[in-house]
Amino acid sequence: MPTPGPSQLTIRPSLPSDKDEVLGFCRFIWDGGDYISYVWDDWLSDPRGRMFTAEYAGHAVGLGRLNQLAPNQWWLEGLRVDPQHQDRKIGSALHAHLLAYWLEHGGGFVRLMTASTRVKVHHLCEQDGFARIAELSCRFAPALDEAPTALTPLLPAGLPAALDFLASAPTLAWMGGLLDLGWCYATPEVVTLEFFLARQRLYWWAGRRGLLAIWDDEEAGERFTMVGVAACAGADLPGLLRDFRRLSAALAFSRAGFFASRHPDLIAALDSAGFRPEDDETHYLYEKRHPSR
Predict the structure, then answer these.
(1) Angle, alpha carbons 35-53-45 (nearest 5°)
(2) What are phi and psi of 162, to 5 degrees?
(3) With 50 as the cut, is the pLDDT of residue 177 above it?
(4) Which homologous superfamily does the CATH classification assign to the domain defined by 137-284?
(5) Confidence class of residue 1 from pLDDT cuts 50, 70 and 90?
(6) Where in the chain is CATH 3.40.630.30?
(7) Which pLDDT value is given to residue 5?
């Protein structure tokens, strides 16, 4: 097909009928490991999100989603372009459309995460006024099959105390004050902590010396757990992370992971608790504040 021009490319809300074409070209992204096929149905039906399709000559050639994590916290994700239509500004058009929707209907902050190698996305973010706020890399440790733990489930009535605790937790500051809600990030508030509470994955540690939130993931048939937040005094963090490894074993997961910032004190604590990087891949977190809301 010829290169789509501005008048030929349409960006519109995604439809159920887009599924086959979108999943068809996503099969060729990330060496066949793209996750869109696992989330398409949920994303399309989720009232908190807005998913858009780029259409050219009657065919779906791109995808992007804007998700509302909290009243004033938004997340850009799922930006995809058919590999047969790369380098035709489709990704730029989708990004601009998503950002325009947020500027009109949103407020607070919008954030996104992208691989450190995706230079074109970095340029898009920088030209649109996003600030790079963190560089993240994934570390894993085997689950520890030892008697757990100093962890006790946090009940709904404990959410105000948890928020007060997080407001002054040094280790949360090492993560830029952000929680990991499953490959997307937000600051602590009731609705973002409820993400973990609904999954029974929110815990006090050692009385109330620490707070741990985790989420579950799966890749290539292996189930593992990831840190959503590990909040405590800096000196306590290795102990909290080792209890996270014990909890992972008790929940029948094989590994425990942390998508961590490159703060030197956080890296030292992860090293001490047995967490190691599996590769050199890093990701950047970007953030933009709404200009008027």
Answers:
(1) 65
(2) -65, -40
(3) yes
(4) Gcn5-related N-acetyltransferase (GNAT) (3.40.630.30)
(5) very low
(6) 9-107, 137-284
(7) 53
